[in-house]
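Case study.
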Amino acid sequence: MVTTQGEPVLHGSPYRADCPTRHILDRIGDRWTVLIVGALWDGSARFSELRRRIEGISQKMLTQTLRGLERDGLVSRTVHPEVPVRVEYALTEAGSSLREPLSALQEWAIAHLGQVSASQEDYDHADQPPATSTNHDT
Amino acid sequence: MVTTQGEPVLHGSPYRADCPTRHILDRIGDRWTVLIVGALWDGSARFSELRRRIEGISQKMLTQTLRGLERDGLVSRTVHPEVPVRVEYALTEAGSSLREPLSALQEWAIAHLGQVSASQEDYDHADQPPATSTNHDT
DNA sequence: CCGAATCCTCAGCGATACTG
DNA sequence: CAGTATCGCTGAGGATTCGG
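After joint prediction, the assembly is written out as follows.
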């Protein structure tokens, strides 16, 4: 996530950091959470399998993000005490329910990506880059 | 956003970083974008007004995030060349259309926040904190 | 095979100061 | 009022290594 705790604590602003949406975005706004949830839509998977499914993820972040999801009750973790330990991860009901709003976002993304990209091109090719910096993007 | 460009470039993974959803999440996953969009649901506003509406935001991040949104074509920026310069920000059509999926997320957040918090409590009160670290949260 | 611990880099973001 | 430029801190997160 981005930071989450450095908040100076506000008072009466209508867009405070403690609104549920903000909270959830802090939770799923990181690089990997959504990808893991997406990977688990295909069914439960073991640690290594998840690593392969997502591939760009490091072992550390996979573990860390899975722990977060488990803590939130969105993902279940089942240890099979076999000889080489086997661990299965799966979406819980709550985790599965995330699919709805996430799909909405996904559809928006698909529907608007072209337009957004075009707008970016347009913006970047404008002729008033105030000298010094090419500081587009966040 | 989180990083977005350090990607090692993958090849055949089904959850590549270049999927539209991932892209959009990188865009709106930062600390302020969603808050600004939310603040503009109430109608257009000037720079200072936005600062007041959001309040926790620094001048730098407000400018930076607004630039990003403008670049993406989600927010329009209108300069009124009056004596003290006046600048109005407003959502574009595309920006407004974000309200739908964002509301879906919001509703999910509201519906599940309690459950998630409870799960966290539960998780944290488990009796196997492997010593050293209290490393919950992302 | 699953994961924890350590190290280190780099970029998000706030604070501050300066322009038009 | 509406920015832009610079500096410094902090923490996300990749690489690597060790344990069960």
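Observations recorded in class. Chain B has a mean pLDDT of 82. Chain B touches chain A through 69 residues (CB under 8 Å). We will return to this complex in the next lecture.
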